[in-house]
Structures are given as C-alpha cells and as structure tokens.
Amino acid sequence: MAKLLNFQHVLSEINFLSPREEFSHYYQSFLDSDLGGIYQGIPWSEMIKAFGLKKDQKGRKSLFSPQGKLALMFLKAYTGVSDRKLIEQLNANIDYQLFCGILLSPGERLVDYKIVSKIRTSLGHRLNIKQVQKVLAKHWKPYLKDTNVMLTDATCYESQLRYPTKVKLLWESVDWVYNQMKGTCKGLKVRMPRSKYLEQKDKYFSYQRKRRKPWKWTTVRVRSLLYLLNKLNKQLDEIERTHSDRLTFPQKYYERRKVIRKVYKQQLEMSKTGKSLPGRIVSISKSYIRPIVRGKETKKVEFGAKVNMIQVDGINFIEHLNFNPFHEGIRLMSSIWLSEELFGRTTHVSADQIYATNKNRKYCTKRNITTSFTRKGRAGKHEVHRKEMSKILTKERASRMEGSFGTEKEHYSLQKIKAKTRKNEMLWIFFGVHTANAVRIARKRKELPIAQSA
C-alpha cells in the first residue's frame, strides 16, 4: 500500500499524477473498487441494443455516450442522491467519471444539473422491461446457483406524494383552476369573474391549522370546495368559448383540466354515497397513482407502483409492474413462465399463501413443481420430507426475498420515487432494482470467478 502524505505540511513536494497521462493506473484502481466490480458485471453493449440507443450522428455531440447515459442511471440509484448532488459528485470523483465513460479536464465542470432528468426522460420512453431483463439474466446466469428454485412476492414502491385527503385534493384542484383563469384573464385583458376563492382560501388554511378535524368540519369543507370547483370550471369554460379565437394552450393544460373534471365527479359521487370508488384519483399532478391496499399494521394503504417480483439465487426480476391495484395470487403461473424463460426449468417455488389458489396448486402438481404451500387434504407417504422442504423454501422467501425489498428501498433510492411521470417512475424502479442486483453480482463474481469460465 502506498504511503499516505499529509499535504498540509509538504504541499510544495507533492507531484500529482495527471489522469490523462497515467490513465492506466487510475483505470485499474477504478476496476479494483466496488464500483468497478459493478461496472464489470453489467453487459453494456447488449443493454445499449435493448434500449435502441445510438451515437449522435448529426447536430451537437452529446456529453454522455449511450453507455454513459445508462451508467448515469445506475450511478443515480447507487448513490441515492439528488440530481444536483449527483452532478456535483461526478465533477469531483474520478471513479464516477470513469464509470460514466467521461474524463473532465482540470477546471472543467458539468453545470447543467437538469441533464440527469433529460436522460431519464429519454430512456423512460425507450424502456422495455422484459427485453432488457433477458439481456441481464443471460449475462448473470453463469454466476447464479440453484436457478431451478424460484421465489415470488409482491411489494409496493411508493411515489413522493403528500398524503391525499378529500379536502387537500379539492383545494389543489380549485387553486389550479383559479390561477389558470387569473392568468388567462390577464393575458386577454378582460375582467376576472367574481368568486368566493379568497374567502374559501382563508377557511381552508384555518381548517388545515387545526390539529383536530371533526367529521362535520371536513364535510362542510368538502361541500364548499365542490361548489366552488364546479363554479370555477364553468367560468373557465365560458372564457375559453368566448375567446376561443385568441387562446392557445399546451396539451398538458387540457390533460390537467380533464383530470380535474374527473376529480370533481368522483368526489361528488363519494360525498353523496359515502363510499370509495375504484380508480380514485389521489393527485392531480400524478393522476396515474392509485391507492394500493396492503393490509400492513403500520401502513394499510400505499400510493405508488405495485410490483410482482421473482427471485433466483438472490437476484430480483420484475414480473409485473402496474400503478393500478392487482391480485398477485393470479400471477404465479406467469412468474413461473418468466423464470423458465430466463433460466430454464423450474422445480421448486416458494410463495406467500395468497398465491395458494386451487388453480395454482393444480398447475404446480401437473408440472411436478414442489411448492411451499400448506397441504390440503390427507398427507402423502413423503409428508415428512415435504414439510422439511416447505419450511426451507418459506424461510428463504421470508428472509432473503423480503429482506431484499427493504435493502432496495433503503439503499437504492426506492424509498420514495421522486420522478414526476409514469414512464420515469417505471425507469426509476427498474434501475433501482437492477442496481441492487449488480451489487450482488459483483460480490458473487469475487466469490466465484467467472463461474469456471462458463
């Protein structure tokens, strides 16, 4: 190991090696690091083809190559920092630069903090989860053992979202419509229609400041905001009709107005019947988010994407991702098909009891697949061995697989998804899951070098 120097006292004697002059030393040091292990465990060229990325042929040359764009998404999940902090760390850390395939000159710095978001949006439109996972599975298969054993379970990756209540949702809708009408009237230089917006604004904030919110107060707020939202919608519609020849709005404006109209109808129906509705909107900015009932003690309802996952030797793969609630019990057969498509014959399956439907039991019996399900009916002649195998499979799923969900959420930016569009959230989840996988593969590579050159 090289001797460390305290440069505060010997500043004039230090001779820093330039990365461009001594590139091989820096690169070898990078490959020997943990980040270098992840870098070597990712099939870059195959992933570039799966995403359909190409080098820039015309126009201004991109700072990041196709590989660099993918690497930046892996680095984002690995570091778990904001886009701004990621660029700051990329400027200062040569290992991060080598991981992304760039090398900044002395005094050169990246200043566009939105470049991460731009790349995320570009890749989000190109993501094909099934196709890219095939590439990863093929590359990682030599390092995996017991690929005939599949674990499956579902989890929810929550979106960054304020906890939705009726009053909050209606006020956000009222506030948006009022401000759009205000801006439109100002641009047209016409008089602003009268409304009780300012009065309701004071009442809303007075209500929100109260620690205790009785049911009667909430009902009054909901009724008042519904009336105001309906009135503002009609006033804005009238302005659009009257000045249609002078008004042009972007597509997002019409999409948001459509969402707010749907919010009004849903909340009006719920206030009349007192019952929740399927497909209920909980955020006007993320209208694709739905409540996911999980039934946990601490968190009965979550708001985000529900994912049915399979695991083979500690490596997770996304079987089904949806922002609408679904019953994971019907996904067992498709989970087995995915496992066999990626790794070949599946002989053992471990899943929660919610998957133990008669249809799934018959399918597994027909395919001669051993499961962790509790037996129905009389015991067979090999019941002792079956119970022992079931116990091992259940323990593996409950500890290893559910533990991996916690690891991904705590350490790979999946605790709260901060992306703002549906496709970007899916991309965020994809790279979070597979960055955690890449870390596990890097450890397996050290334990099992190239799997006997397989």
Q: List the total number of helices.
A: 17
**Low-confidence runs of at least 5 consecutive residues:** 450-454
Mean pLDDT value: 89
Helix content class: 40-55%
Second rung of CATH, namely the architecture of the largest domain: 2-Layer Sandwich
- Number of DSSP strands? 6
- Assign the CATH topology of the largest domain: Nucleotidyltransferase, domain 5
CATH class of the largest domain: Alpha Beta
Name the overall outline. Answer: flat
How many structural domains does the protein architecture include?
Answer: 3
Q: Can you write the helix and strand succession as a string?
A: HHHHHHHHEHHHHEEEHEHEHHH
Query: What is the gyration radius calculated from CA atoms?
Result: 27 Å
Distance N to C terminus: 33 Å
Decide which structural class fits the backbone.
Answer: alpha/beta
The main pleated sheet reads as:
6 strands, mixed
Share of β-strand residues: 5-15%
Protein described:
The protein is an alpha/beta fold and 454 residues long. The protein has three domains: 108 residues, no CATH class; 159 residues, Nucleotidyltransferase, domain 5; 108 residues, no CATH class. It is 54% helix and 9% strand. It is built from 17 helices and six strands. Strands 1, 2, 3, 4, 5 and 6 form a six-stranded mixed sheet that branches. Helix 9 runs antiparallel to helix 12. The chain is flat, with a radius of gyration of 27 Å. The C terminus is likely disordered.
